[in-house]
Amino acid sequence: MRRYMVVNAKGGCGKSTLATNIAAYFASQWENVNVTLADFDPQQSSMDWLSVRPEERPAITGINAHADGLRGLNPHTDFLVMDAPASTHGPDLTAIMKHAETVLIPVLPSTIDMRAATRFIEEIRNVGKVSRKEVKIGVVANRVREHYSIFQELEEFLKSQPVQVVGHLRDAQNYVRAYGAGLGVWELAPYQAWQEWQQWEPIAQWMESKKSQP
Predict the structure, then answer these.
(1) Predicted pLDDT at 147
(2) Which domains, ranges and CATH numbers included, belong to the chain?
(3) Residue 196: exposed, middle, or buried by beta-carbon count in 10 A (0-12, 13-18, 19+)?
(4) What percent of the chain shows pLDDT beyond 90?
């Protein structure tokens, strides 16, 4: 079983968007796999997305991990995608990281988010399981607008961090459309989402490669 967790203590950075699209990627792009989406956040945004997922689309099993933890996890799950809650620090961060194998941290192009991410990345790197190199971490630049001046600041920030940057995702309405329909951007029509597909390719390649495994 491969275990992916999307985490950032800063709220509003797109954790649920990233988690739902990762789950949809594995469900739609791989054949005959069992995908589980576990939502540790009390807001249950990932479970809301899953509740409107069309029946004809590849199945994704949902777990309300905020209430039940991972007790209901099917042992035959191939890909477990976990949506972590905001404001996770200290013992709570250590506890939730016990479930993780590969971690993705979304970071927004804003001064507030970059400063918060600096502190969070430092904190997560000091968690025992991470410091022992039992977890691989990748950063995703999220909701990027390349023509804005803050984009260059984000690029400089990412270069300064001691973790790998695995991809950039643009600020696009396709994510809103996909979420509202219970889909991932991989499941939208090519004429709509080809740019998103291109941007997801390096992230998908990293998630599937040994580079993302401890």
Answers:
(1) 66
(2) 2-200 (3.40.50.300)
(3) buried
(4) 80
